[in-house]
Amino acid sequence: MTRQRALVYIHFAAVLFGLTGVFGELIQASAAVITLGRALFAVASLAVFARIQRRPLLGMLTPAQLFVLVIAGALLAVHWVTFFISVKVGGIAIATLGFASFPAFITLFEGLLFREKVRMAEWLVLALVTAGLVLVTPSFDFADQGTVGLAWGLLSGLSFALLALTNRRAASGMDPMQVACWQNAIVSLIVLPFAVGQLPTLAALDWLWLGLLGIFCTGLSHYLFVSSLTRLNARSAGLVIALEPVYAIGFAWALFAQQPSLRMLAGAALIVAAIVWSGLRKAAH
Questions:
Q1: How does pLDDT run across 20-30, given as a tens digit for each residue?
Q2: Which of 63, 185, 219, 241 counts the most CB atoms within 10 A of its CB?
């Protein structure tokens, strides 16, 4: 793995992350069905990638680790379901920008729940994200579909922030590929009762989109992300992954004519700037 190849991997991973909303828009199914299909195909693809890298996925887990994986899997299920609801209701750009609020939620949780000292710079990150979300909000009226979609996107960002804090504090020392595979398996079990009855009515084309979503936007993207970190530091990786909302907006514009307004673009710029700055600061510490 060279640094140049690692940069290609991380950019490709960011593009695949940005495509997630596109598949959410294409698949004519409920958020629970999309989440189940994504998780099942992700488990299969992660098992293949783990075999390529000769990483054991079924290693012994302590009861404490298994408990953490169950909690994290539940949070991941909530994150995906709320994100795909946001895509269906508000569109790809709105959903992605709502989800991109997660660094602000992490700052809040670290200060309020874990009693960690929040520095002035971190409050500024929170202010930037908040200002960006105000600009992105179509109107402050829940009769507006875009506003409802953004609310679901914010819930997606909230659950992802809790997931990140859970993994950061309790899943350390575990193989990232193993963590991802187990969490996807748990997601499958959680959403199965809500989605299994709808699977027989799913069109063949939707199965194709689900396969691409699970294999490429989940399994492959995670494989590329983990592989790139063997040569890249957190700062470089964070800078590239912060481009996910940009890619998502571009895809929505090109494929579905979901043209962003200047106000939305300004809000997106503030949110992306906050994510980049947050990543740079965490890498420095």
A1: 999 999 999 99
A2: 219
Q: How far is CA 159 from CA 6, 44, 103, 223, in A?
A: 29, 24, 11, 22
Question: Is 69 inside any structural domain?
Answer: yes
Query: What is the structure's pLDDT at 188?
Result: 95
CA-based end-to-end distance of the chain: 26
**Is position 92 within any domain?**
yes
Q: Which residues of the chain have pLDDT under 50?
A: none
Q: Is residue 285 part of a domain?
A: no
| Residue from 276, 268, 274 nearest 238 by CA | 276
Contacting residues for 5 by C-beta, under 8 A, at least 6 apart: 231
Q: Using CA atoms, how far apart are residues 162 and 76, in angstroms rounded to an integer? A: 9
The set of residues, in sequence order, having a beta carbon less than 8 Å from that of 143 and lying 6+ positions away, is none
Contact 143, 87 (CB under 8 A): no
Distance of alpha carbon 39 from alpha carbon 116, whole angstroms? 34
Query: How many domains does the chain contain in total?
Result: 1
Q: How far apart are CA 58 and CA 56, in angstroms?
A: 6
| Per-residue DSSP letter, 2 | -
Stated pTM of the model: 0.84
Distance, in Å, from the CA atom of 274 to the CA atom of 144, rounded to the nearest integer, reads 27
**DSSP structure class, residue 114:** S
The reply to whether 107 falls in a domain is yes
Domain span at 92: 3-280
pLDDT in tens, 56-108: 766 677 788 888 889 989 999 999 999 999 999 988 988 888 888 887 787 77
> How many CB atoms are located within 10 Å of the residue 130 CB?
15
Instruction: Give residue 257's identity as a one-letter amino acid code.
Output: A
